[in-house]
Amino acid sequence: MDNNQEKSTEKSLTTLGMSRRGFLGASAASAASLAGLTLTGVMTPAQFAQAAKEARANVHIEPGELDEYYGFWSGGHSGEVRIMGIPSMRELMRIPVFNMDAATGWGLTNESRLIKGDSVDAVVGDAHHPHMSMVDGRYDGKYLFINDKIHTRVARIRCDVMKCDKMLHIPNVQAIHGMRVQKVPYTKYVFCNAEFRIPHPNDGRDLNDPTKYHTMFNVIDAEKMEMAFQVIVDGNLDNTDADYTGRWAASTCYNSEEGATLAETMRNERDWLVVFDIHAVEKAVAAGKFITIGDSKVPVVDGRKKQKSAFTRYIPVPKSPHGINTSPDGAYFIANGKLSPTVTIIQVDKLDDLFAGKISERDTVVGEPELGLGPLHTAFDGRGNAYTTLFIDSQICKWNIKDAIAAYNGDKVNYLRQKLDVHYQPGHNHTTMGETRDADGKYLVSLSKFSKDRFLPVGPLHPENDQLIDISGDEMQLLHDGPTYAEPHDCMMVHRSKIKTKKIWTRDDPMFAEAREIAKKDGVTLEGDNKVIRDGKKVRVYMTSIAPTYGMTEFNVKQGDEVTVFITNLDMVEDVTHGFAICEHNVCMEIGPQATASITFKADKPGVYWYYCQWFCHALHMEMRGRMLVEKA
Ligand code: CUK
Ligand code: CUA
Predict the structure, then answer these.
(1) Residue 239 CA: which ligand 1 atom is closest?
(2) Which of 74, 78, 128 is the pocket-test mutation for ligand 1 (most atoms within 8 Å of CB)?
(3) The whole model's pTM is what?
(4) Extended beta strands in 47-188, E state
(5) CB 625 less than 6 A from any atom of ligand 2
């Protein structure tokens, strides 16, 4: 934390201390938590400030010190992913994905446009769920996946370079929301829910007949980034998670009424947790027992409830459930009630019997603890405790899973451990390594949707407030407030030992394989030549760069030409990134050391147009420039 952050934290903690409710001090905690389900107890502001100060002292990151964890934050409807350092909460980098990014040229360069594929013209996206690939239930540091709700996409980020390398536009469905990876035996699949129900195919038929709409659960081949299969379901799918055997995925599902308006979707007392038998679907697809929809070739199986298929079971849970989280020991799925003050604990090893028809759906439920108002998401510390966000109560509720199950069985035990105020209205929360077998119970982040009075006012649009909480002891302690821009729904935190990034690009990187192909056809070597190739009205300009010069100080084109500029950065020095921008032509991109980047534009105005390097690279960075001379047609 830098000094300003430190001060603002201290100030806000003090403010907090005077207005909080339900906070338990270290000394009062155990006694109070045994006293009953309603936890009350107020620390004096001085006690609270002291406790927070002590907690902060353990996590102070000096300038120049490196964080212990990487955090990957969704950027919500900004369409990007952000890399954070934990515990400092410093924003380390942004990874443009579904958005356009002026600094790096993402969405403008030919390399990024190729990756965006058939959704290249979409420059908005709504990213919710960033999750890392795993081997045997542990992060492998290879890929990060992220969904886009607006354009029904899933993208992949390569963690060696922290750039998006694949984007899949998912057919037959609308609005990809919940997304997680298969944890075991490895991330062969990415699971994602399409939320909104549409006609199939969605070609103008059945517009006025919502009874014919449905949605699907989608399974993506993670390595190829192609669709593996889809499963038709009842209701609207919300969030999803995978288990630790590799056989099951489970999605929360609202609107069991299949209504089209809010009133219609609220009638039933219970909706569902839909459990998918991934192995059963794989078997059916391999045996050719599937349908396809419209022009799409993706295998589709029918997992609707009345079908009583081998693919799905619909476990009734209190209505409109939201988050679904698998406990790190693999024993339980925990469905978060949202409109119900409860979460529902489903025992994973009972699913075998459920699918075999030996027990009924509700027999898989082994606990339904009441936690507070608006439970949305649950995280874990690896010590048997769960941490559930209470959206309406603006709290994190810490509770014990074993005790909640015992209470469900009639034992007189209190499963609640602590309720900590957060500021305000938390959505997701997440613990370090908490969605893997390596859950280490050190930090929890509360992604609070409202910041209200926590920061200097910046106009009617407020930042959100991501709060860092120490969960290593018996008591949760708030460490830090971090304002964030729209809108980190979800995040994940991975120990830095799991991530190995490249310092500079390697020349054989697939990211610029296409540029290499084009150059080859032109008889040009990207690393050596500085050349202009005319091909009718198309002009390809090949240029190298070494700080502080480009390989060409000028090049000529004709008015009306379609110009593609390829820049190959020959610098071998870490952190010497060049840019390439041309005045008045909407051209601006990043070229990392040893990378090639290319961009295409129309030279439609005669005259002199300077190009220059816009990434500060050298003492003579300002001088790194040249002229594009556009001759009158
Ligand atoms: S969702 Cu936003 S708070 Cu998209 Cu995972 Cu729950
Ligand atoms: Cu090259 Cu600035």
Answers:
(1) 5
(2) 128
(3) 0.91
(4) 69-74, 80-86, 90-96, 131-135, 138-148, 153-158, 163-169, 174-181
(5) no
Residue 67 has phi, psi (to 5 degrees) of -70, 160
Q: Answer whether 347's CB lies under 8 Å from 362's CB.
A: no
User: Is residue 20 in contact with ligand 1, taking CB distance under 6 Å?
Assistant: no
Q: Which CATH superfamily is domain 512-631 in?
A: Cupredoxins -  blue copper proteins (2.60.40.420)
* pLDDT tens track for 414-432: 999 999 999 999 999 999 9
Interval 59-63 mean pLDDT:
83
Continuous segment of H or E residues that includes residue 474: none
Is ligand 1 within 6 A of the CB of residue 417? no
Gap from CA of 392 to ligand 1 centroid (Å): 14
Token digits for 291? 């349908």
What is the three-class DSSP state of 376? strand
Instruction: Please determine, for residue 191, whether its predicted confidence score (pLDDT) is greater than 80.
Output: yes
Residue carrying the six token digits 């110009």: 563
Q: Is the Cα torsion angle 608, 614, 617, 619 positive or negative in sign?
A: positive
Q: Could you tell me if the CB of 94 is within 6 A of ligand 1?
A: no
The one-letter amino acid at 516: R
Q: Which of 415, 414, 373 is nearest to 396 (CA)?
A: 373
Q: Residue 50 burial by CB count (10 A; 0-12/13-18/19+): exposed, middle or buried?
A: middle
Taking residue 525's Cβ as centre, other Cβ atoms within 10 Å add up to 14
Cα 81 to averaged position of ligand 2 atoms, centre (Å): 26
Residue written as token pair 């290879």: 142
Kindly report, as residue ranges, where domains of CATH 2.60.40.420 are found in the chain.
Answer: 512-631
How many Å lie between the centroid of ligand 1 and the Cα of residue 254? Answer: 14
Tell which residue, 41, 58, 99, has the closest CA to residue 477.
Answer: 58
Of ligand 1's listed atoms, the one at least distance from the Cα of 490 is: 5
Name the helix (H) or strand (E) containing 418: strand 416-421
